[in-house]
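sry for the spam today, last one i promise. struct tokens for design, 208 residues
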């Protein structure tokens, strides 16, 4: 599979705030099941993979509470996520504290470590997988453009620039703005057109 324009467009979208929650420490995060759902939605079933390539126990402690053993366990895991021939590898730890069952404590700690490592690996794929959340929990996009990306309306940019230069009134300018808002162009081209718009507005309103 090779990434299509549709794949890139989906990856460049900001994450929906509805997908973001808070963990026990108050940090913004996305649930592992939601990451898997999004991977399937964007890339397709059987078009990506995730594997645990290392799982190591950090500690195992037990103490007696009212005559019964309670177990606390921690693991660290290394996960590899592969999409379109590219692999991303990350480590993460997970723990389970004060469990009455030794087996359940190990199971929970291992699952948490695996989920955390999986999510960290997926973050390399951008904002749909929580990259922007590392910026103080922001859901604003951090990856807004891919260099070399082809945009359907890029050839129309010179025409809009010319239209701004020759516009006689703000009605002409508004007509261009309406088209630009619906267009598929790069962020750099939008910045250029914004500057041209401000220059036209100033000229028409008698400011220069």
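last one done:
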């Amino acid at each position: 599979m090779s990434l299509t324009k549709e794949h890139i467009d989906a990856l460049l979208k900001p994450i929906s705030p509805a997908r973001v929650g808070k963990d026990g420490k108050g940090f913004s995060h996305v649930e592992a099941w939601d990451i898997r759902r999004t991977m399937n939605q964007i890339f397709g079933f059987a078009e990506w993979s995730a594997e645990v390539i290392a799982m190591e126990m950090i500690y195992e402690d037990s103490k007696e509470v009212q005559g019964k053993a309670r177990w606390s366990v921690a693991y660290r895991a290394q996960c590899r996520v592969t999409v379109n021939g590219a692999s991303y590898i990350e480590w993460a730890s997970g723990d389970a504290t004060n469990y009455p069952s030794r087996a359940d404590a190990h199971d929970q700690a291992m699952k948490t470590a695996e989920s955390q490592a999986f999510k960290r690996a997926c973050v390399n794929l951008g904002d749909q997988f929580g990259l922007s959340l590392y910026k103080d929990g922001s859901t604003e996009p951090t990856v807004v453009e891919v260099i070399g990306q082809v945009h359907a309306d890029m050839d129309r940019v010179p025409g809009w620039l010319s239209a701004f230069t020759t516009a006689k009134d703000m009605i002409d300018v508004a007509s261009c703005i309406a088209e630009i808002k619906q267009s598929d162009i790069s962020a750099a081209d939008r910045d250029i057109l914004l500057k041209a718009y401000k220059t036209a507005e100033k000229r028409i309103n008698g400011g220069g």
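The helical segments are 5-12, 32-43, 102-122, 157-166, 170-181, 187-204. ok im logging off now
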